[in-house]
User: Which sequence fits this backbone?
């Protein structure tokens, strides 16, 4: 039996992500280029002979932000029960590719940037210098008026417990290899997904993102890359990140 996996996909490009502005609670649509690249990513990543095999997905978690939900829609996973934010869906049997349920989960929403919402890192540094506040590192300091590293850790640890207890423990204990789907997909945001990877291997966010990651370009998808994370803390579970920017 192959190890259960967690796939992590960042939402497609928005105007603010293109300009480097911190986007937490603000709702922004994907750009035309962002939608185009997500469709290409779906074609490259999803399929019976691709990295993400829809029939092997046990569950899908998606952020409540519309940019993440639009990204999941464009991946064209063929969810049997459709997507919860789309009403009166008529899905042809031939289009169904997975029985996985889609769960909108607040624990995987982007970091709440508080007072830094909509600002670039350069602007934040300038403001802090003007106010005599010194250097800033989100992993160490969090965001005034928003979330701290401890806040992020609390909600991500809850999510990780949910994934492991509901989907991975059963698969890892399946000595008969029945082939029950056990892969999990997360579609969310840049900072929260990097934080997720840190917490998955029990690293403190205050240590900063310094994981040893293997980067590879995906075939037919040179603008994106895959990161595969291995650690003694991973329960023999492979974590793969497909960051789309």
Assistant:
């Amino acid at each position: 039996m192959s190890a259960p996996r967690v796939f992590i996909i960042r939402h497609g490009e928005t105007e603010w992500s293109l300009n480097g502005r911190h986007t937490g609670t603000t709702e922004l649509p994907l750009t035309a280029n962002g939608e185009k690249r997500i469709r290409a990513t779906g074609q490259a990543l999803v399929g019976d002979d691709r990295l993400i095999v829809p029939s092997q997905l046990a569950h899908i978690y998606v952020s409540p932000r519309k940019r993440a939900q639009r990204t999941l829609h464009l991946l064209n996973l063929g969810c049997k029960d459709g997507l919860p934010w789309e009403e009166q869906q008529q899905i042809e049997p031939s289009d169904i590719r997975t029985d996985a349920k889609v769960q909108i989960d607040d624990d995987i929403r982007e970091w709440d940037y508080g007072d830094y919402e909509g600002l670039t890192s350069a602007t934040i540094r300038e403001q802090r210098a003007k106010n005599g506040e010194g250097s800033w590192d989100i992993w160490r300091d969090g965001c005034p008026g928003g979330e701290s590293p401890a806040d992020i850790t609390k909600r991500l640890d809850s999510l990780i417990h949910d994934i492991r207890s509901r989907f991975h423990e059963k698969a890892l204990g399946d000595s008969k290899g029945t082939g029950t789907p056990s892969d999990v997909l997360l579609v969310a945001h840049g900072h929260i997904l990097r934080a997720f990877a840190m917490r998955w291997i029990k690293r403190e966010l205050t240590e900063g993102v310094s994981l040893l990651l293997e980067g590879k370009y995906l075939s037919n998808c040179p603008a994106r890359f895959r990161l595969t994370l291995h650690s003694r803390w991973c329960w023999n579970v492979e974590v793969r990140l497909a960051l789309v920017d």
